[in-house]
């Protein structure tokens, strides 16, 4: 349900630059040891985190695909990565960029319009300087999303709760 993740703000607009969205998906692992480790973390109530991504829908009058930007482990399916992440250690990360045909209908919220009509260029420039060592709770997809949005939105934006003890992460737009 969207309301548990998103607290709307009066300064969310759809006019101006490119449309900017945040989308979430539950963290998942492949079958085998990574899935067992993640299941243990969930059952012990250590984690109930979501993976956050930034979506950019260009404002061009020509229908275009949506571009997704996110930050994740280089090898998210490995047992070593799962153990390192659960234990609070850093793993090599990678900034991903891919296309979607449409904006997802669930777990996706518009957070505003970009400063101009070049959000893609701003995101690509931002990505070139992003440090790719990933450490959950300290430098992960939430931090990436926060920082990218600070660079492309005119409003202040903040994902709530950097605490590793949080059982859920909420989205909040702070008034400028």
Automatic annotation (TrEMBL):
Domain of life: Eukaryota
Identification of the protein by name: PTB domain engulfment adapter
């Amino acid at each position: 349900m969207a309301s548990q993740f998103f607290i709307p703000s009066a300064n969310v607009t759809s006019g101006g630059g490119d449309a900017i969205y945040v989308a979430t998906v539950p963290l998942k692992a492949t079958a085998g040891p990574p899935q067992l480790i993640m299941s243990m973390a969930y059952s012990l109530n250590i984690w109930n985190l979501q993976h956050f991504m930034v979506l950019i829908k260009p404002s061009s009058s020509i229908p275009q695909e949506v571009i997704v930007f996110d930050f994740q482990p280089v090898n998210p399916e490995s047992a070593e990565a799962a153990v390192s992440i659960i234990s609070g250690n850093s793993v090599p990360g990678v900034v991903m960029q891919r296309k979607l045909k449409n904006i997802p209908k669930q777990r996706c919220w518009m957070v505003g319009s970009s400063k101009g009509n070049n959000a893609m260029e701003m995101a690509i420039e931002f990505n070139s300087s992003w440090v790719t060592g990933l450490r959950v709770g300290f430098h992960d997809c939430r931090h990436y999303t926060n920082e990218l949005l600070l660079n492309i939105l005119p409003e202040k934006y903040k994902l709530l709760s950097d605490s590793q003890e949080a059982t859920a992460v909420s989205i909040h737009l702070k008034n400028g």
